Each structure stands twice: as structure tokens, then as C-alpha cells.
């Protein structure tokens, strides 16, 4: 079998899909992250993808190593391109062997996968109503952004507003819902210590990205202030970026993104490293249906995954949502806060390619919001 063609689709609201075709009529789908450099990713996908035309798609690790080991290796652009290509190759391989990808990675270790639902939006509001809605729909866990923009040192009033939101949920639902609180890297170390400490009485499921990953040395300091589990990892790429996190020992939950770290097998390797350090995994997956399908394959065969992010109905999905481009919509049906293991070959997802092609004609321009502090300085989004 040989790779014959690669197509890349820019799809609203903020997704990039890649389709790899073979001379035996087996196609594979992958997904890449647009971020704020959609055209750069697409151009890179064709540039790197053309290097593997004529190659055997079964040689996934060999192709991965060749694409990764350039002189200037790593980085989010290369990372997401390699990730999209890699998951498409696994899709082909699973279809060839008529088996879900996780069956080729050791088989299932679980019966189903717990998922959580986003509430509150980018600038969190109406969280109680949303939390009650998710509880009514059977979810066991939710996640919300903690705060709007925060300066290096900011008013305690903003901290209290965060605490009040989390408290309002806890007071209404008790412990029937787990609450993940995402600092989203918006909080600098001085305020992160304050906010983490004030949230501790409400027993969050975890605190995510309490500081940006480039300030990873401060994870240990914040961990000394609270007993709440700390999570990070969505902005890291390849297992080498996770090394310091593992050695430091302050983080309790890693959140690798299958569409950024290098794909399915790289995510599996990172999770295995975390298991050796007795750490949990909650994979990052707020993007499109292909990335989530690929992540579920990892979840199925990875024992230290305890919960899965998913983006159905997330506030970023304006105009289109996960199910719009998928034929087998039942794959993403959640029951009592869980999703069943995929059963179809490959990634298990059947794409509506005609609709993908139609919407791709409209183009895609997506950039993350640009926020400013009260004094006009740039704030972290």
C-alpha cells in the first residue's frame, strides 16, 4: 500500500482536517489546530505531507521520526501538522486491519470513558443555570474558565467574583458535580497563589494552567499552598516538553493534546510516562470531531486517563458543532456522563466529506481574542 494524495480542509468554526488517500482505496482522516496561524499550518501540512507521497502508510513510527527529526524540530506548528498526519495514518491502519486503533495499541482497559462539559464561556457567567443543565443531562463533571483578564497584581474583587461563581455552583449542586477550574494561563504567579488558596474550600476537581507553562517552576510553589490537584499540558508538544513536569512532581494531572503533541502514539507514550510517576491524565480536546475521535482511541487503552474533555456545545463552536460533519453521530452520544468505546475500524469516525468540502469553500479565519488590562497592557487570553 502506498500514500497517493493528501487534501487539507479549512473548516469553520476553527478546525483543519487532513485526508490521506492510498492506492488501495483506504482513506484516513486527521485534524490539526488552526490557532492563529491557519494558513501557515495548511501550507506546512502540504509541504510535509508531500514528503510522504509514495510511502507505506503502515510505517507510522518511521514516518513520525522522519517528520519530527528536522534540524529545527518541535514547536506548535510542526507539532500539530505531524499530529494530523499521524492520526490519519492510524485511521488507515485500523481500517486495513478492520479494528479500532486502540485494539492495535494493547486493547481496551476500560468499559467506557467519563467526559466533562464546558460551561460559562470565555468570560464566565450564568454558571449555575448551565451547571444544573449539565446535571440534568447526566454529566458528572463540568469545567469553567476561572476569570477574565488579570494583571500581575490585581484587585481582590476579581478573585472574589471567581470564588462566588464556584461557590454558587457548589452550594446549588453539592458534590453531585465535579468542578474543574481553568486558570487558562491568564493568571500570573502572585495572583495565582491567592486565587488557588481561595478556591480550595470548594474542593475543585482540579485547577488547570494556574500559570503559563513557560513559568513551570512556579507550579511547585503553588502546589505548596493548596491540596487541590493541579493540571497542565495542553500547550506542550512531544514527550520531551513534559520531562520537567514529571521530574518536578508538582503537577497531578497532565493534559496532552493528541492534535498537538504528535498524534495518537505520542500521546500514549506521554501517558505511559505519567503512569510511571503516578500521575493522572485528562486529555485536552476542545477542537473538532476527528481530534476527539483520535483521543478516545487513546483513552480506551490508557489506564491513568480518568476523564475526557469534549467540545460539543462549547462556546467556541459558533455556526457549526462536532456532529455537523459526522455521519455516525452516535459515536459522540453521552449517557450519564460517559461515552462508549468506539467500535468501528480506525478512528471509528465516518466523515461527511461532501459537507466538509462545501463548508471549506467558505474559508476560515480564526484568531484568539486579544485582551487588555485596565491600563492598556496586553492581558493573557
Task: Give an overview in words.
- This protein has two domains: 97 residues, Enolase-like, domain 1; 246 residues, TIM Barrel.
- The model has no long low-confidence stretch (mean pLDDT 95).
- The strands form three sheets. Strands 4, 5, 6, 7, 8, 9, 10, 11, 12 and 13 form a ten-stranded mixed β-sheet that branches.
- 46% of the residues are buried.
- Strand 1 and strand 2 form a beta hairpin.
- It has eleven helices and 15 strands.
- It is of the alpha/beta class and 381 residues long.
Question: What is the highest CATH level, the class of the largest domain?
Answer: Alpha Beta
Q: Helix coverage percent of residues?
A: 25-40%
The global form is globular
Query: Can you name the CATH architecture of the largest domain?
Result: Alpha-Beta Barrel
- If helices are DSSP runs of H or I spanning 4 or more residues, what is the number of helices? 11
Quick take:
This protein is an alpha/beta fold. The chain has helices at 38-49, 60-68, 76-96, 127-136, 156-173, 189-199, 219-225, 238-248, 264-276, 289-300, 353-360, and strands at 3-11, 15-22, 28-33, 112-119, 141-145, 178-182, 206-208, 230-232, 253-254, 280-281, 308-309, 334-335, 338-340, 371-372, 378-379.
List keywords for this structure.
381 residues, alpha/beta, Enolase-like, domain 1, TIM Barrel, 3-stranded antiparallel β-sheet, 11 helices, 15 strands, 35% helix, Mandelate_racemase_N_dom, metal ion binding
What is this structure's SSE topology?
Elements lengths: L2 E9 L3 E8 L5 E6 L4 H12 L10 H9 L7 H21 L15 E8 L7 H10 L4 E5 L10 H18 L4 E5 L6 H11 L6 E3 L10 H7 L4 E3 L5 H11 L4 E2 L9 H13 L3 E2 L7 H12 L7 E2 L24 E2 L2 E3 L12 H8 L10 E2 L5 E2 L2
Parallel strand pairs: 4-5, 4-11, 5-6, 6-7, 7-8, 8-9, 9-10
Antiparallel strand pairs: 1-2, 2-3, 4-13, 12-13, 14-15
Helix pairs in contact: 1-3, 2-3, 4-5, 5-6, 8-9, 9-10
Amino acid at each position: 500500500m502506498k500514500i497517493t494524495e493528501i487534501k487539507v480542509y479549512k473548516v469553520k468554526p476553527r478546525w483543519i482536517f487532513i485526508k490521506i488517500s492510498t492506492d488501495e482505496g483506504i482513506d484516513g482522516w486527521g485534524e490539526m489546530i488552526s490557532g492563529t496561524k491557519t494558513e501557515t499550518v495548511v501550507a506546512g501540512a502540504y509541504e510535509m505531507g508531500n514528503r510522504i507521497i509514495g510511502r507505506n502508510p503502515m510505517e507510522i513510527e518511521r514516518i513520525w521520526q522522519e517528520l519530527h527529526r528536522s534540524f529545527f524540530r518541535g514547536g506548535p506548528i510542526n507539532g500539530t501538522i505531524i499530529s494530523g498526519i499521524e492520526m490519519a495514518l492510524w485511521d488507515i491502519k485500523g481500517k486495513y486491519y478492520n479494528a479500532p486503533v486502540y485494539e492495535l495499541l494493547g486493547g481496551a482497559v476500560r468499559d467506557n470513558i467519563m467526559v466533562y462539559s464546558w460551561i460559562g464561556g470565555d468570560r464566565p457567567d450564568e454558571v449555575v443555570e448551565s451547571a444544573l443543565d449539565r446535571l440534568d443531562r447526566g454529566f458528572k463533571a463540568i469545567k469553567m474558565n476561572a476569570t477574565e483578564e488579570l494583571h500581575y497584581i490585581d484587585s481582590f474583587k476579581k478573585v472574589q467574583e471567581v470564588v462566588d461563581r464556584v461557590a454558587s455552583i457548589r452550594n446549588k449542586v453539592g458534590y453531585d458535580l465535579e468542578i474543574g477550574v481553568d486558570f487558562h494561563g491568564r493568571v500570573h504567579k502572585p495572583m495565582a497563589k491567592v486565587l488557588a488558596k481561595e478556591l480550595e474550600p470548594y474542593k475543585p476537581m482540579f485547577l488547570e494552567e494556574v500559570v503559563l507553562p513557560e513559568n513551570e517552576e512556579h507550579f511547585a510553589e503553588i502546589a505548596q499552598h493548596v491540596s487541590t490537584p493541579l493540571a497542565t499540558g495542553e500547550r506542550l508538544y512531544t514527550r520531551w516538553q513534559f520531562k520537567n513536569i514529571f521530574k518536578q512532581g508538582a503537577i497531578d494531572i497532565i493534559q496532552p493534546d493528541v492534535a498537538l503533541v504528535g498524534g495518537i502514539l505520542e500521546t500514549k507514550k506521554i501517558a505511559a510516562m505519567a503512569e510511571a510517576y503516578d500521575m493522572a491524565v485528562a486529555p485536552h480536546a476542545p477542537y473538532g470531531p476527528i481530534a476527539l475521535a483520535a483521543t478516545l482511541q487513546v483513552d480506551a487503552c490508557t489506564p491513568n486517563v480518568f476523564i475526557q474533555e469534549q467540545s460539543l456545545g462549547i462556546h467556541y463552536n459558533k455556526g457549526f458543532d462536532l456532529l455537523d460533519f459526522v455521519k455516525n453521530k452516535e459515536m459522540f452520544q453521552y449517557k450519564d456522563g460517559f461515552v462508549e468505546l468506539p467500535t468501528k475500524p480506525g478512528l471509528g469516525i465516518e466523515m461527511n466529506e461532501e459537507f466538509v468540502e462545501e463548508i471549506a469553500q467558505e474559508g476560515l479565519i480564526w484568531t484568539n481574542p486579544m485582551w487588555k488590562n485596565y491600563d492598556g497592557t496586553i492581558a493573557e487570553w
